[in-house]
Amino acid sequence: MIELDTTIKNRAGIHARPSAMIAQTAVKFSSRIFLEKNGNRINAKSIMGIITLAASFGSKLKIIAEGSDEQAAADAIKALFESGFNEELG
Amino acid sequence: MIGNEPKVFTVLDLVDLDLKEQNALGLKCVAGRAGLGRQITVPDLNRPGLALAGFYESFAWNRLQIFGRGECAYLAKLDAEGSHQSVQTLFSYQLPCCIFTSSLLPSESFLAAAEGAGCAVLTTSLNSSDFSGRVIRVLSDIFAPKTTVHGVLVEVFGIGILLVGDSGVGKSETALELIERGHRLVADDVVEIRCVNGSILMGQGANKVIGHHMEIRGLGIINITHLFGVGAIRDKKQIQLVCQLEDWSPDKVYDRIGMDELTTEILGVKVPKLEIPVKPGRNIPIIVETASMNERLKKMGYHSAKEFNQNIMRWLESENARALYFSRDDY
Questions:
Q1: Which of B128, B154, B167, B264 fits a disulfide with B101 by CB distance 3.0 to 4.6 angstroms?
Q2: CATH number for the A2-55+64-86 domain, one of 3.30.1340.10, 3.30.160.140, 3.40.109.10, 3.10.450.10?
Q3: For every residue of chain A, which 3-state class applies, written as one string?
C-alpha cells in the first residue's frame, strides 16, 4: 500500500472537470485507489465520490493506492494534482 | 446548392406535385402545353411588371413569372392600346412558365403569343401572396441540398434523433425497443437528409416503397406500421441530435460529465452529438430516451451538467471561505 500527501493547487478546487480527470486516470490502473480528506475516504474511480470531498483550494488530501500497480497509480494521480489540472493556479 | 447533383425539374413536375390540402398549388395549364417540358432551374419567382413596361435590364427571365392583378391590368391596358411589342419581347426569353394568380386569365392575344413561343401559361385560384409563399416553400424543398446517411431516424419525446454507427452495433434493435416504448420511427437504414433554410436538417426515408419497414437480424423484414400502428411512425422529422453507437473501447475516454459538447456537421449544419459506448447489458434505448429528455431540458435553458458544476464551485468557494475564517489567529 502506498500513501502520498498532496495539496489542491488550482484556484477553483476539485469541481466536475478535475474530478473527471482524476477518475479517468484512476480507472486505467487495476489497483484500488482512494482519496482521503479529513478522515473521509472515497473511491478515486468515482466522479461523484471525488466531488463529495469538497476539496477546495489549499486543502490537503491523501492518495492511497493498493494493488499490483500501486506505485504508478499513486504517482499518476499525484502528478495530476501537482499540475493543477491545467487550470489557473492559486 | 454546393455538392448537389444537377436537378431536372420541369414545369410539368411542378403542376403534377402531389401536395396536401394546405400546401396545394392548384395549378392548371391553359396554354402552351408544349412548354411543360421546360426546366425550372432556380427556386425563385419574378414579377415581370418592369419587363412588361419595357425595362428588360436585369430581367430575371429564368425564374417563374408570376402575373398578379397589377400585371394583368397592365396587360389589359396594352391590349386595349393594341401594342403587342412588350409581350413579344417577353416571350423572346426562354421563360420557364407564366403563372396567373387569383384565377386571372390573360387575353387571347397573350395566350396566342405564349402558344407560339412554346411557353406554358398556368393559372391558380390562390392569390399572389399565398401562391408565392407556397411555391417558394415547395421549390426550396425540392432544390435543398441533400445527402443520405446510413442510420436510423427516430422521434423520441419530440426530439428527432439520428442513430448512427457501424453495421451490427444495434441501431435497428435500439430503434425497435424505442418504438416498443411508444416512440416513433421515421426511417430505417437509409435516411435522406435535406437542409432547409440553410439551418434545419429534415430527415425522411429515402424511398416511399421501403417506407417504414425494418430489417431485424433473426426476424427479417418487418412492417412497423402494421405491427405497431400508425402512431409508431412519422414521415419526416428535423434531426436535432445524433447518437453515435460504438463498441465499447477500453482505450477510449468517454464523456462522463457532459460539459464538453460534441457536434457533428451534416450539410454544413452543426448538430449536437453523443458518443454512446455499447456493451452487453447496457440498456441503450433508455440512455437514448434520457439523452432526448436532457436535450429538451437544454433547449429550455437548463443544462444539467453545467448547473451541477456551478453548484459545486459555489460550494467549494464557501468551504474555502469558512476554512480561512476558522484558521485566523485572532479568532
A1: B128
A2: 3.30.1340.10
A3: CEEEEEECCECCCCCHHHHHHHHHHHCCCCCEEEEEECCEEEECCCHHHHHHCCCCCCCEEEEEEECCCHHHHHHHHHHHHHHHHHCCEC
Q: Cβ of A13 and B256 within 8 Å?
A: no
- Average the pLDDT over B150-162 and give the result: 95
Confidence category of residue B153, pLDDT binned at 50, 70, 90: very high
Active-site residue B189, yes or no? yes
- Domains belonging to chain B, first-starting first, are 11-143 (3.40.1390.20), 146-300 (3.40.50.300)
CA gap B269, B273 in Å, rounded: 12
Maximum Cα interatomic distance, chain B, rounded to a whole number of Å: 107
* Mean pLDDT, residues B289-312 taken together: 91
3-state secondary structure B132-186: HHHHHHHHHHHHCCEEEEECEEEEECCEEEEEECCCCCCHHHHHHHHHHCCCEEE
Least CA distance to B320: which residue of chain A?
Answer: A56
Q: Inform me whether the C-beta atom of residue A83 falls under 8 Å from chain B C-beta atoms.
A: no
Residues of A in contact with B254 (CB under 8 A): none
> How high is the ipTM of this complex?
0.74
Average pLDDT, chain B: 88
B315 neighbourhood in chain A, CB within 8 Å: 54
Tens digit of pLDDT for each residue in B224-261? 999 999 999 999 999 999 999 999 888 888 888 888 88
Contacts with B, A 50-69, CB within 8 Å = 51, 54-59
For B111-141, b/e burial (b = at least 16 CB within 10 A) is bebbbebebbbbbbebebeebbebbeebbee
Please state, in angstroms and as integers, the Cα–Cα distance from residue B33 to each residue in B27, B90, B112, B118, B144, following that order.
13, 18, 12, 7, 28
pLDDT digits (tens, 9 = 90+) for A54-82: 888 889 999 999 999 999 999 999 999 99
Enter the pTM of the model: 0.75
